[in-house]
Amino acid sequence: MKILLLGYGKMGKLISELAEKRGHEIIAKISIENVEDLDNLDPEEIDVAIEFSQPESAVSNITWAIERHIPVVAGTTGWLDEWKRVTEFVNQKSGTLFYASNFSIGVNIFFKANEYLAKLMNDTDGYSASIKEIHHTAKLDAPSGTAITTAEGIINNHKGYDSWTLTQGEPVKRNSVPVESERVDPTPGTHIVKYDSPFDLIELSHTAHSREGFVKGAVLVAEWILDKKGVLNMNDFLSFEI
Ligand SMILES: NC(=O)c1ccc[n+]([C@@H]2O[C@H](COP(=O)([O-])OP(=O)(O)OC[C@H]3O[C@@H](n4cnc5c(N)ncnc54)[C@H](O)[C@@H]3O)[C@@H](O)[C@H]2O)c1
Ligand SMILES: O=C(O)C1=N[C@H](C(=O)O)CCC1
């Protein structure tokens, strides 16, 4: 498979290593220093683009590839205010976009456990939900994309919540899930869901030991989407039954 890397930072470099180990060819490695190299690429030579760049460049990178009929695996977070516009564009062009806030299989199991826990807590009085995420200090967006997906998992399964609010401890409105972000090096990614009551505390957490889980998931998805169309996510790739 011939891969274009849109973003060649911490994630792009690790994806390049694993993809080459799995026998794939990296056609180009695009970062802020060589964006103009995109003009010299032949789209016919690219099977898939893997996009791990920065919140402000994700949308232009994705639309660049979709315009050229290149399937995109997108991992950059912090651009979801543009979600509707981007996905309408993908569908209009009959393109392929796979987005995941987190490509790690472990986190996607955590997402399912979070949804199940929210359903259980739905009928239980006296507990307040909250989310905390911890990442390295170079992270540009807050809260993390993973924390947003986790909050959506609670909102969609617990009738006591209809929104989330980024907070550093100050109170939020009753129907909103408070989300706290902390930046501590070298944390690759930690997410904690809490349901606290006057009597006890229930906690569900996922701690990434390295970026390897995100990297492996992204490469496996890139191999999987080659013959797929439309806007896809980890629920299409994994089929967990609970
Ligand atoms: N979905 C997931 O599983 C997952 C996992 C880890 C990181 N991420 C996200 O992926 C993104 C990248 O993470 P990272 O740790 O590699 O960041 P990083 O800062 O190490 O790398 C970002 C790279 O993007 C490049 N870049 C900037 N503008 C660009 C442009 N216009 N076109 C192409 N490249 C450009 C930079 O030069 C840099 O090399 C972040 O948004 C992060 O939140 C997602
Ligand atoms: O390192 C990052 O940045 C990460 N970003 C994703 C997020 O925002 O959830 C996934 C975890 C690592």
Automatic annotation (TrEMBL):
Enzyme class, first EC level, given as a word: oxidoreductase
UniProt pathway annotation: Amino-acid biosynthesis; L-lysine biosynthesis via DAP pathway; (S)-tetrahydrodipicolinate from L-aspartate: step 4/4
Gene3D superfamilies the record matches: Dihydrodipicolinate Reductase, domain 2, NAD(P)-binding Rossmann-like Domain
SUPFAM superfamilies per UniProt: Glyceraldehyde-3-phosphate dehydrogenase-like, C-terminal domain, NAD(P)-binding Rossmann-fold domains
Gene Ontology molecular functions: 4-hydroxy-tetrahydrodipicolinate reductase
Superkingdom per UniProt: Bacteria
Protein EC: 1.17.1.8
Residues annotated as domain Dihydrodipicolinate reductase N-terminal: 1-103
This protein's UniProt keywords: Amino-acid biosynthesis, Diaminopimelate biosynthesis, Lysine biosynthesis, NAD, NADP, Oxidoreductase
Catalytic activity of the protein: (S)-2,3,4,5-tetrahydrodipicolinate + NAD(+) + H2O = (2S,4S)-4-hydroxy-2,3,4,5-tetrahydrodipicolinate + NADH + H(+); (S)-2,3,4,5-tetrahydrodipicolinate + NADP(+) + H2O = (2S,4S)-4-hydroxy-2,3,4,5-tetrahydrodipicolinate + NADPH + H(+)
Domain Dihydrodipicolinate reductase C-terminal positions: 106-238
Family: Belongs to the DapB family.
PANTHER family on file: 4-HYDROXY-TETRAHYDRODIPICOLINATE REDUCTASE 1, CHLOROPLASTIC-RELATED (PTHR20836:SF0), DIHYDRODIPICOLINATE REDUCTASE (PTHR20836)
Record's protein name: 4-hydroxy-tetrahydrodipicolinate reductase
Organism of origin: Algoriphagus sediminis
